[in-house]
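Operator note (shift B, R.M.): manual run for ABC transporter requested after the automated queue skipped it. Running by hand, logging everything below so the morning shift can see what happened. Input copied straight from the record, untouched. If output looks odd, do not overwrite the archive copy; leave it for review.
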Amino acid sequence: MIQFQNVTKSYSGDKKAVDQLNLTIPDGKIFGFLGPNGAGKSTTIKMLTGILPIDEGTITINSFDISKHPLEAKKTFGYVPDSPNMFLRLKGIEYLNFIGDVYDIPTDQRKEKIEYLTKEFGIYEVLNDAIQTYSHGMRQKVIVSGVLLHDPDVWILDEPLTGLDPKSSYKLKEMMREHARKGKTVFFSTHVLEVVEQLCDQVAIINNGKLEFTGQMDDMREKFNTEGSLEQLFLELTNHE
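Run finished. Output pasted below as returned.
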């Protein structure tokens, strides 16, 4: 479970990128996090993962405060950032073994998991090549494989489907569903609204740093008295000052 309590972040003093955010992401759900560019979505995710400090409020991940107990909190989650352009000089297998070392994954278990994940995503044959030679989609696949390697309870996925081919995208979505079915947490940010409608159990929409809505799709349609698509609802919620 992830909990945001009165979380605020400012960059220039006056302008609040995130303003008094209160949000609970429950276990056993795929939770979609939406917002237009500049709404505070990326700032929220960076505070959640400990990349940015929190100005006010608290964020807890499986009861660990990310500010007070960062190492304990970070051991419980896996994070796919919105850009896979990291560790480019390492070979794919070197990167995955580095992740295995960070999380103390036993060698035999690690080898088996690396083989399974990279075969699922179609990159097993290129693991001895440098990541800088990979396409964007292949880089995304090796980052996702690294995130899933230690089987974290909480998945924090920022645009994870970007650059994936249809087969790999389907595989990852099935893994997300299975993770949620096990009673674990999937926090999922995307711009592809059709994917949200197909995949997410609950959604939250942030705009101008404030939470506009949180709940199930049916709740949102009932609240706004419409049978329209998520795209129509999203535009209605965010197309105002």
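Quick read of the result: Residues 166-181 form the longest helix (16 residues). The beta strands are 2-10, 16-25, 29-34, 56-61, 64-65, 77-80, 154-158, 185-189, 202-207, 210-215.
Leaving this for review. - R.M.
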